[in-house]
Every structure is written in C-alpha cells, then in structure tokens.
Design goal:
With about 250 residues, the protein is of the alpha/beta class. About 35% of the residues lie in helices and about 20% in strands. It has a 6-stranded parallel beta sheet, with helices on both faces. A 5-stranded parallel beta sheet has the order 7-6-8-9-12, with helices on both faces. Strands 2-3 form a two-stranded antiparallel ribbon. The protein is globular, with a radius of gyration of 18 Å.
C-alpha cells in the first residue's frame, strides 16, 4: 500500500481523521507500505514530522521528490556532479558532500535543481544565476511537476510552475522527478521489490496520485481530505478516475 502524505495523512502538522490509526493497523498486520510525497524535504525530515504526530517510522519508508532528484543526479553524474541548488534545504542535505555545488553563473554546471520560490535557495538573485546556467547548457530539472501547492496562506506557486518558467525563458525541455512521473513509481516499486499491479495507492490528487498510480496499473483510492473534491469527479474517466472514493481514511 502506497500512501500519500499531505492532504491524505495530514494537513500541515495535524493528522487527518483515521490516518494514524490506519498506519498503525497496516504496520501491525505486517503489510508492505511506503509513504510517497512531492515534498521537497528529505525523507528524514518528513519521518520526523510524522513522528511528532505520534507514529515512529523509519525514514526508509518515505519516498519524496527530493530523494528521487538526488538519486538521479548521483546515478547520472556520480561524485563528479556539478549542481546548482535553486530549491530547498532538503536537497542540500541529501547531496552535501556528494556533489560539487555551483555558486556563480560563469562556473560549469551539469544540472540546475528547481523547487518552489519559497525555498531558502530560491532567492531572486539565485533565480537569475539558475536561468543563465540553464541557458549555457545545464539541465533544467524540477523536483516535481506540481503547478501549485496549498499552504496556510492559500495556494502557492509550485515547483513545476517555477521550473517551466526557467524552461520557457531558456527555450529548453525540463525534466521532473516526483509524482506522477513514471520513473518515480518504477524506482519505488523496484526498491520495495513489488509489482506495481499488486499495489494500492491512496491519495488526494487526481493528477499526481490517481493518474500516476493508474498509469502503473495500480488500484487507486481517492480521499476527499485534500486537493480533490467530489465535484471534480464529474465527467472524469479513464486515467484519472479512481477505483474507490472515501471521505476520509476512517472508511478504510
């Protein structure tokens, strides 16, 4: 069972109804589980967040977009990677000591990692450097393709939107790492040693969760505690139509 996090298990730092009880039951039954997120934080930080809500789980069970990005960088370029971080502290933590950080626009750069503009490393001066590095040939890479994400203040610009801004300006095609990218789910299933057709994915986003899971042959469950509302299902067929819909995780 693959469980999305924000909007499915919790909102901000508050567990959603039935979420932690479901996790405890799955653990007690010995089921193979993983927690998936387009979070730009490291799995360690996300695990600590869940622990603060009352469930202590290994960081190995958490699979984030930032982790997928770090894996790609190391597999593609190895320890010789030259990286510009226009994303988050999570990326810095995951790659610190494993790559060479680029700081100026005149330096050689293999890949620019873009997150949302709220990130510590996504200041306006750094955005200028990122654009010029991409213009000069660095790969334009977004941690995830999310156009927006919810915050306590309302809808915010997502990693996908910011990445496409760089890509449009530099006239290049970007790459992405999180949900609903097929590579995200393929690598996850490989690590878990499971067939995707034997997975059930629970999430709150019709595109990132339901669409991503169904493309892999997974069964999908939409919970109405996050992004999607019941009205969004009107006329939805095929790749974005969940197999089941629940009001919240108490129904599971």
């Amino acid at each position: 069972m693959l469980l999305d996090l924000d909007g499915t298990l919790y909102k901000e730092d508050t567990p959603l109804p039935g979420a932690m009880a479901l996790v405890r039951r799955l653990v007690a039954e010995g089921r193979k589980i993983a927690f998936i997120s387009n979070s730009t934080q490291s799995p360690q930080r996300v695990a600590a967040r869940v622990k603060a809500m009352g469930v202590d789980l290994s960081p190995d069970l958490f699979h984030t977009a930032s982790e997928a990005a770090a894996d790609y960088v190391l597999e593609r370029f190895g320890s010789a990677a030259r990286v510009f971080n226009c994303a988050t502290e999570g990326m810095a933590e995951l790659l610190e000591g494993r790559v060479t950080w680029v700081h100026e626009e005149h330096e050689k750069c293999d890949i620019v990692l873009a997150g949302n503009p709220q990130g510590k490393f996504a200041t306006v001066p750094r955005m200028r450097i990122a654009l010029r590095l991409i213009w000069n040939g660095a790969i334009c890479a977004g941690l995830c393709a999310d156009r927006v994400y919810p915050s306590p203040a309302g809808i915010e610009i997502g990693s996908g939107a910011m990445t496409w801004m760089f890509a449009y300006a530099a006239n290049v095609e970007p790459i992405f790492f999180g949900k609903p990218q097929r590579s995200f789910f393929e690598n996850l299933c490989r690590r878990l040693e499971v067939d995707s057709e034997r997975c059930v994915l629970v999430g709150d986003n019709l595109h990132a969760d339901i669409g991503g899971g169904k493309a892999m042959g997974m069964r999908t469950i939409l919970t109405l505690t996050g992004v999607a509302r019941r009205g969004d299902l009107v006329g939805i067929e095929g790749e974005f139509r969940p197999d089941w819909v629940v009001e919240d995780l108490r129904e599971l």
